[in-house]
Each structure stands twice: as C-alpha cells, then as structure tokens.
Amino acid sequence: MDLFINKNFNIIRKINEQISGTHEIDQEKAKLWIDSQITERRRNAAKNLIDNTKYVTFDEIFYYIFNVLMDIRSNLKTNKVYMYVGNDKTKSNYFISIIGAYYLINNFELTPIFINDINIDILNEIKNDSLIILDDMMYSGKQMSQLLENIYITAFVNDIKLNNVYIGVVGVTSNSKTRLEKITLSTSTRKILKDHLKINFRDIPYYCEFPYKLFYGFKVKGLDETLSINEFLDILYYFSPFTTGDPKVSIYFDHKIADDISTFYRPLLYGPVLPSNIDYRLSTDRLFESFKSMVPLINYKYNNNIGYKYIEEYIENITLEEKNLNYSKLSFVPFMNGIPTIPTMNLDFFINSPYYYFVSTEGMLYEIEKYEIEQEEDLLNVASKILSLYNNDITKSFTWYKNKILF
User: Fold this and answer.
1) What is the 3-state secondary structure (H, E, C) of 100-112?
2) What is the mean pLDDT of residues 37-54?
3) What radius of gyration, in Å, describes the C-alpha atoms of the chain?
4) Collapsing DSSP states into helix, strand and coil, what is residue 159?
5) What is the CATH number of the domain that holds 152?
6) CB 189 within 8 A of CB 149
7) Which residue among 192, 220, 248 closes a domain?
8) Which of 138, 202, 334, 395 could cross-link to 339 by cystine, CB 3.0-4.6 Å?
9) CA-CA distance, 73 to 234, in Å (whole number)?
C-alpha cells in the first residue's frame, strides 16, 4: 500500500510543480474584459464577478488537505482507518484521496484501507473503525449529502452502528455546509424506511440524524450573501441565465473549473464580451424557473412574500432595458493566465449567432425541444461541438487527472 501511494503521490507532485499558480487572473486583462462590456450595468456585473472570484492553487490544495487531516487525526477514536475513494480514478476526489493517504502514512503513522463502494459487507467490516471521505470542494453539498444518505440507510436497515465517519474537504460554501447539517432523505429512502419500520409513510422523517464530523480548509460565502439581490441576479442574467442550479459561488482551482451548475464556468474560461442581441427569446419561462431559487432569500430579506413578483418584474425590466442597445457582436477577452484566445475558425460561428448558443448550450436545448425548432437544435449541436474542441485544447492542465495517469 505504501509503495502504491508513494508512486501515485510522486506523479501528482510533479504535476503540482508544473501548474501550481499558473492560472491566476491577469488583472489588466480582467479590467479590459470589464471595460469592454457595452453598458454600465454589464460592466458592474462583470466587475462584481471578478471581485468575488476565488482562485485556489495546487500548492494550497496540499496545504489544506494536510491541515484537514491533522484535525481529523486529532479526532480519530481508532487507529484502523478506511478511506472511501469511489470507483472512478479520473475523478478529482481520487487524487485528493491519494494526497490524503500519503500524509496519513508519512505524517500520522496511519495506513488507510481504500474502499470503492458502500455496501453492507463493507460497512460490516468497518463498524466501529474510522471511515474518511475526502474531496476538493462542496458547491451545493448535494453529492456529499447523497453519499451520506446512502451510508445512513445501508447501515440503518442492517443494524450497523457507525460512529466514526469523517468528511474532509478542501473547501465548502455556506450553502453546502448548511445542507449537510441535516441530511435530506429522498422519497425512495423514506419508502425503504417505511417498509423496514412498518409504519405509515407520513410518519417517516424528512431528515436523518447521522453522526459524522465535517472538516474543511476554507469556507466561501455565496454571491447571494455578499452582493445585493439585484447585483447577484445581474450576474446570473448575463453570465449564467439557464442553469437551474443558480451557481452561488465563483471559484476555480489549478486542477479544475467546475461545471456551470456549480460555478461560472463559461465566463471564467472564455471571458465573453456580451453582444447586444442578448434577447433570450423562447426562454422567459425557463429564465423564471432558473431564478426561482432566489425567492426564499428575497422573501426573507424583505420580510414579505414578494419573491415571485420580484423575479417577474426583474426579468421584465431588464429585458426591456436590453432591447434599446446599439448593435454589437459577441467577442471574447480571456482574462485567466494560461488561457489562449479562442481560435478564429471557431470564433466566427459564435459572433454571428444569438448569445444563448454560447452561454447555455445545454440549458437552451430544453427550449429548442419544447418549440421543435429543428434548425436551431442543429446549430446548438454544432455550438456544443465547437466548445468541446476548444475545451479539450485549453483545459489540459485543468483536467490532467482525467487522463488515467494514476493507478
């Protein structure tokens, strides 16, 4: 085990030496990107996005993992440790676990036992020993919550007591931390509990009490916490309009820019200068659905049940404002170091197309299918392919761990 970990760790360390700190935002390019937006409102949205973006270097990953494990080590009640790494070695949690295992072995005199799955046999083996789960970032907390839910229900129905589960992540958001304070039970899990306990479904709780401990390196506040409601809505409207997850944070790492459900993937990677033809036709209903997650926050801040009306008026007003702009085409000013300009052969397609082809190629497919616009569906497929080709070229250093170099 020690040799296996050391070999993988040395691969990761060499990658770290090559890429750590190479993707910082170039402030001059960022200013050019901001100033290139054609209205004051758009410039403010772009500036708010830049000012509230967190960049985490690879060196910092090592630092945070070490400190998280130092906290976990001081809380461990057993010296036999299992580490859940999943089944996919091309996921970031795998190389994070390799780094963690290296530190456990070489700094804390513990050799973890890697496990790839959560099932009754494995949990029976763990029982009162320690289970550690490591990852790089919790954005919404949904995936970690689902994993803990799976562990909980498997243990509960098989009468297995797990008291030493430790979650260690490099970073969390305020929202993800709140989400993990109560593990939500899905309908399918509640049905399993109903059959197991032989009680009425309505008597099954919506949350479970699961004794785990969470440790993290840093916490990021959401843009919905640091900005005004309208400032945050402007960022969503211009840079992430159709992602129903409404990304709450703008953050990226040397090894990854998360998808556009988790963060502002496209603006961070491409630096789009918004065109005047931003009219999200076909999309008013979808836009409203995307912004609905803001309703509880609006109701809370105004101490009034006005959230839905607020969103409707916001969309109506900004759409009217956008219609009066002088014509301009989509262009790009990448502001992150290590990101080249979009190749001209790919650029022509976007600058002559509606903005939503670029900004939300996946999200808009919903509208295309709804209205059965075959030509636009074909164009969106082309847009997706172009973005994929470009992504493959510029994100190699971000996604090195997906190339199956670890074993």
Assistant:
1) HHHHHHHHCCCCC
2) 97
3) 23
4) coil
5) 3.40.50.2020
6) yes
7) 220
8) 334
9) 44
